[in-house]
Amino acid sequence: MAHEKQGISGGRLGNRYTKGLIGPKEKAKNSKTTIKRLWVYLKGQKKGLYSVLLTVLMASGLNLAGPFLIGMAIDTMIGQEEVDFKRLSTITVILLMSYIFAALMTWLQVHIMVGVSQNTVREIRKDLFAKMQTLSLKFFNSKTHGELMSRLTNDVENINNSLSQSVAQVFTSVITIIGALILMMWFSPLLTFLSLISIPLGMVATAKIASHTRKHFASQQKELGQLNGFVEETISGQKVVKAFAREQKVIKEFASINEKLTSVGIRAQIFSGIIMPVMHVTSNLSFAIIAGAGGFMAARGIITVGIIASFINYSRQFTRPLAEIANQFNMMQSAIAGAERVFETMDEKSENYGENCKILKEVVGEVIFKDVTFGYEKDVNVLKNVNIKALPGETIALVGPTGAGKTTIVNLLTRFYDINKGTIMIDKKDIREIDRENLRRFLGIVLQDTYLFSSSIRENIRYGKLEASDEEVEAAAKLANAHSFIKKLPYGYDTNISEDGGNISQGQRQLLTIARAILADPAILILDEATSSVDTRTEMYIQEAMLKLMKGRTCFIIAHRLSTIRNANQILVINEGEIIERGSHRELLDAKGFYYKLYNNQFKRQVM
Questions:
Q1: Sequence-distant (≥ 6) Cβ neighbours of residue 486 within 8 angstroms
Q2: Which residues of 435-462 are buried (b: 16+ CB within 10 A; e: fewer)?
Q3: Residue 16 pLDDT
Q4: What sign for the dihedral angle of Cα 379, 383, 385, 390?
Q5: What's the pTM?
Q6: Residue of 317 and 423 predicted with greater confidence
Q7: How far does the chain reach from its first CA to its final CA, in angstroms?
Q8: Where in the chain is the domain with CATH 1.20.1560.10?
Q9: Which range, of 69-83, 398-412, 465-479, averages the lowest pLDDT?
Q10: For 345-481, where are the E strands, in sequence order?
Q11: In 3D, which of 223, 294, 318 has the Cα closest to residue 262?
């Protein structure tokens, strides 16, 4: 029963964040699987990747030519009776041109890779957002809005940064390592063997550090999502925060979450920062070995000084890319952690849309609940063996105390949730066999908590029927008694509604949602506490609009104000998930049962 309202609005602020803070740390998933899935998106940019690979090959080849030319230049001057300045000048010009063209190729590969990464994350972002539109309310109620926004923004941006900076760099590093190793072996196999002795030590140390780094980056992304969720909810609830003077409380809660994020972030950066010093130590050890062994070999006339100079440069070109790969690996850890969270959302089970489902062409409006049992949590039933039959055009009122299960009935009829046991039928067709999108086209919902988008009044009404003309929009507004107040606004129907709808009253927002429902022209109408938060005069306008909207439609009304449902064909009294009374307004008063007590509590001076 406590889950009835949570089915629509989610849990309380404290519970939603405390659970995230004290629960088990998020463990990193299989990085190989994540990389394979990222590669599927990258393959869509084959032309760009081939272009990047070509520029990488050209830039790497030109950079690898540099040390060879430097060695030639040194040997031209050392050990010669007469320096060949013409040869030296030619080598110098070729060397200079090589570095200039290498720089141009590097700039070009960065330019192309930025486009590749942006196009790739565009597709990831598009697929993630589209996936979110197919997920059930149960999923959204289990996650904070800020956490989901973090996955769509921060995590995707981490992927973008990693792709734009790391992929080309890894290509360059791998090609440079292979090219440098081949040239080192050509110059001196012995020196090559000696220079590589320290490399395995650095690689083992880097692998050990990286395994810890990825876990900390995953935790950092999770805590960032918690922080975003808290900030988003606190900003949205500023009126409540200020009304109860809870500014200091939310400041303390934010400080706690922020401190946890800082702690995790420090650990992630410390571990990632160790990798480069380890690689530098490995590189310097290799240079020391080359200097000692190379000097000894040069003194014996085995190799020239120019070869030693070239070899040291190639050794640097061999070890530096290893360090760069290790450094890029840190960035990739953050991207992989973000990608895991993105793909985790993509792997959530979607509501079935159109998969082996029936499509309704029209709906007459007969609704039957047969032995329906449902619970938001396993073994905790909110509804128990509920039976309802609504004939086409009938109005069914649902009344009862808070948490009795009224809103849950609406959630099941709209298939926001699916029943555990029993059957719900519309026009004798089981709604579980009907495509959700198709089903909801025949349902109109006006909720107590109105929601309007940050757009014009015209577009908010048109949301009920996207292809509607301006004339149809205005006709719906007139039927909803909203036209008169709209015309008084500064820009009429083109007036933009603020993000929280604060520039119009609660009653006016409700009238707009009724106009939206009128425009949608549903066969079955659901009114959930539609007049509970407005004044009596505004209620009269809303009631008049609702009567127009209800005409000729099967209607389900949830109301605490019992005066609004006197003319309902059936009134169902629900308590603790069961229908305990049913009948017309007069029949239930005459029975002097639960409904009679509810009615008298509202109208003590007048018993009808």
A1: 457, 477, 492, 493, 495
A2: bbebbbbbbbbbbbebebeeebbbbbbb
A3: 32
A4: negative
A5: 0.67
A6: 423
A7: 31
A8: 11-346
A9: 69-83
A10: 367-374, 383-390, 395-399, 421-426, 429-430, 443-446
A11: 223
Pick 216 or 174 by higher pLDDT.
174
Q: Are 307 and 188 in contact (CB under 8 A)?
A: yes
Count, residues in the chain: 608
Q: Over the stretch 200-233, which tens digit does the pLDDT of each residue have?
A: 766 677 667 766 776 777 788 778 878 877 887 7
What is the arithmetic mean of pLDDT over 112-119?
A: 89
28-32, 271-275, 472-476, 503-507, range with greatest mean pLDDT:
472-476
Residue with tokens 């009269």: 540
Q: 11-346: which CATH number, 1.20.1560.10, 3.40.190.10, 3.20.20.120, 3.40.120.10? A: 1.20.1560.10
| Three-state DSSP state, 37 | helix
Alpha carbon dihedral 213, 215, 220, 223, in 10-degree steps, equals -170
Strand partners, 571: 397, 583
Kindly state the tokens that stand for 597: 């007590």
CATH 3.40.50.300 placement within the chain: 352-442+560-608
Two tokens at 428? 């004798």
User: Encoding tokens for residue 582?
Assistant: 């049913």
Q: Is 380 helix (H, G, I), strand (E, B) or coil?
A: strand
> What CATH number belongs to 352-442+560-608?
3.40.50.300
Q: Phi-psi category of 93—alpha, beta or left, where left has phi over 0 and alpha has psi -120 to 50?
A: alpha
